[in-house]
Amino acid sequence: MKLEGIHHISCITGDAPANVEFYAGTLGMRLVKKTVNQDDPSVYHLFYGDEKGSPGFDLTFFEYPGAAPGVPGPGMVHRIVWRLPGAESLAWWKERLESAGRETELTDGSLLFSDPEGLQHEFIVYAGSEEALVPLHTEVPPEHAIRGFHAVRAWSVNPPATGEVLHKVLGFEDLGDGDWIVTGDERSGRYLIDPSPGHHGRPGAGTVHHVAWATRTEDQDAWRDRVASSGLFATPVVDRFYFKAVYFREPGGVLFELATMGPGFATDEDPETLGERLALPPDFEPLRDRVEPALRQLPDIRQWRPAGV
Ligand code: ZN
Q1: What is the pLDDT of residues 59-116, one digit of tens each?
Q2: Which helix (H) or strand (E) holds 159?
Q3: CA of 8 to the centre of ligand 1 (A)
Q4: Of 1, 32, 60, 299, which has the fewest Cβ atoms less than 10 A away?
């Protein structure tokens, strides 16, 4: 039983329209699902991914309209690391981001920037053999497109205890210096524990809410049992309709989720028009007449979709 790297990363935004403009516009990700927060259907839950909405490239945002900006601190993920195909792509993105008004920092093999709410991202060059998960976009040539998650960088309030859970419960391997890797049959993912800063964090817009690791659907109950029997508090298996989820907080303070690789986002929409209309899981469909008019208008994502895909 192995984890297949990062399934998705969920974050908070205070401004869904600007969020769509940045992630689906500037960064060229495909908005693969526009739905509501299943714990609060008055606000959006947006999912960005590659063409298919694959686990391994699924960045999600809960919208809390007008939420104050947060600050990452100990016990939080502070940066998301993405794969690019080569060094030329780092330079290409530096120019694109700067022309969109974002500051960037290009170092040897990495490009740092943040989204308009302060969420930090890092592009790195990935030379490994895992499948590239690529979104198509009118302004981003496929040879420069983002290819999926590589890692998250986190600050743990207790790095040894975090390491013990990563290794003994979740099957990560210790590469030293806080660099942990989990390798599945298809995909790997890394958890990088950086030395914690001196300040306290505060959740809010532009911060990461949780990171989800990918499980095989048939293993989900066994994973839940494994986490619970390690002494951590694990939720029951929750059916999120697009996948099944178990949540627990690792001892370093970060909320983890284990999420199944199926059934996926095409389960209630045509793969060609994913994300274009508000998708509501069956339990929420009777609320559509109340929910939909209360949500804010978002940019039309069809403007960024290449013709004929
Ligand atoms: Zn999640």
Answers
A1: 999 999 999 999 999 999 999 999 999 999 999 999 999 999 999 999 989 999 999 9
A2: helix 159-164
A3: 6
A4: 1
